[in-house]
Amino acid sequence: MAGPGACYTDADLEASKKKDSIYHQVSEFLAKGETVAVATIVSAKGSTPREVGAKMVVTAWGEILGTIGGGCGEADVKREAIEVIRTRKPRTVRVDLLDDISSDSPAVCGGIMNVFIDPWWQERDREAVSAK
Amino acid sequence: MSSLSEELVKIAEQGEAAVLVTIVEVSGGAIEPGAKCLIRDGQAQVDTIGDAKVVAALVGESERHAKAEKSQLVSLTIPDSAIKLEAFFEVMPAPPKLIVVGAGHIAVPLVKIAKVMDFHVTVIDDRLLYANRERFPDADEVLTGDMAQMLKEMNITSSCYIVLITRGHAYDEPCLRNIMHSKAKYIGMIGSRRRIKACFQRFRDEEKVTEEAIERIYAPIGLDIATETPAEIALSILGEVIKIRRGGKAASLSGH
C-alpha cells in the first residue's frame, strides 16, 4: 500500500505495468474472440530502427499496437500480418531498408531485418496450456 | 481456464524471469512454425511442440540466453533426429531487485535513485520509526522486523542486489552471515576499513566460511568517487550495483 507521501497508488502502478506488456493486449483481443498477429523482429543486420525482440500487434482491421520501427517496412509487415490473420499460418518477412536510401523518410536506416509474424487466436492459446 | 497469453501476462506482472521459444522455421519433422515452448526455472512449463527431444534441446539452449538477458534467433540441429530448426528465444528477464538493509539517512536517497533506474526496491529495518511508508513513498516494499531473520526467510535469487547499511556492525554482521552463501548477484556492506577487516577476520576464524564467500563481499561499499553527503554515498553504492549488473570496470572502494 502506498503511504500518504506517494504521488501514485499501487493500483495505478499495476495498471501501467499491465499495459506495458504486449501479451496483455494479445490476451484482451483473444478474450473478445479476435485473431491477431504478433510481429517480432527476430534478426537484423546493419542499422535498423528497433532492436531484435521488438514487437507489434496487428488486428484483422490493420490496427497496430506497439512498433517495430514505423515507415514503409512497418506498412509491409502490416499487410502481411493481415494475410497471416486470414490464413492463420505464420510467416517470416524480410524487410529491406536499403532500397530507398535517397528517400527523406526517417525510417530509412540502411539495414535488413527479418520479422516473424505469428497468428494468435483463442483456441490455440488455450490448447497450449491444456496440452501441458 | 488459463492460456499461454495469460501466463505471459502473469509473468510480466509478477516480475519473474522466463524464456518463450517460438519455432520460426523447421525441416525434417512434424513440428510447425509457430509452435511454442515457455521455459521457467530451466523447465518447460507450457509446450505446443510435442516432441520431447526438441523440447529438451530448447530448454538446454535457453539457459545461456536467459543468462545473457538477450533475445536471439538460433539455428539448432536436434541430436538423433533429422530435425533442423530455427527458433526465436524471447528472453523476459526478471527486473533487478534491490534489498536495502537499514533505513537510515543513506537509504532515503538510495531508494529514490534506485526507483528512477527501475529497480524493485525492498527496505528493511527493525525500527518502525525509520522503516515506514512516509520515509520511503517510492519503495515497493518496506518491512519492519529483525533484519537478519527477514533476510534468512527471503527468497534471494540471482537478480537480487543487497546493500547492508545498518546503523552498526553489530547488525551488519548477523545479516551478512545469513546472505553470504545466497545466490545474490551483489552484496555490499558499509563500514570503516578497520571494522570490516575485524569482521572478515572473525569469519575466517570460523571454519565454515570460505575465502570465496568473503571475497564476493563489496566492503567498504561503493565506487571511489570521494563522496561527502548521504546522497553522494547513495550514488556511489548504486554506481557499484550498476557496475556489477552491466559488467563495468570502475574502481570500487573494496578494491574489486
Account of the 3D structure:
The complex is a heterodimer of chains A (132) and B (256). With 132 residues, chain A is α+β, with helices and mostly antiparallel strands. Chain A contains four helices and five strands. Chain A has helices at residues 10-20, 22-31, 71-87, 122-130, and strands spanning 36-45, 55-58, 64-66, 91-96, 112-120. The longest helix of chain A is centred in the middle third of the chain and has 17 residues, at 71-87. Chain A is elongated. Chain B is of the alpha/beta class and 256 residues long. Chain B folds into two domains: 4-92, no CATH class; 97-246, Rossmann fold, CATH 3.40.50.720. A six-stranded parallel sheet of chain B has the order 8-7-6-9-10-11, sandwiched between helices. In chain B, strands 3-2-1-5-4 form a five-stranded antiparallel sheet, sandwiched between helices.
Query: How many DSSP H or I helices of chain B?
Result: 8
Helix content of chain A: 25-40%
* Radius of gyration based on Cα positions of chain B: 22 Å
Q: By helix and strand content of chain B, what is the structural category?
A: alpha/beta
CATH topology of the largest domain in chain B: Rossmann fold
Please state the CA-atom Rg of chain A, rounded to the nearest Å. Answer: 18 Å
Beta fraction of the residues of chain A? 15-25%
Written as H for each helix and E for each strand, in order along the chain, the element string of chain B is HEEEHEEEHEEHEHEHHEH
Second CATH tier, the architecture of the largest domain in chain B? 3-Layer(aba) Sandwich
**What helical percentage do the residues of chain B reach?**
25-40%
User: What's the number of extended β-strand segments of chain A?
Assistant: 5
User: Residue ranges of chain B: pLDDT <50 for 5 or more in a row?
Assistant: none
Number of domains of chain A: 1
**Tally of discrete structural domains of chain B:** 2
Give the neighbour order of strands across the main sheet of chain A. 3-2-1-5-4
> Count the strands of chain B?
11
Task: Please name the two chains that share the biggest interface, counting residues whose Cβ lies under 8 Å from a Cβ on the partner chain.
Answer: A-B, 41 and 34 residues
Shape of chain A: elongated
Shape of chain B: elongated
Mean pLDDT of chain A: 81
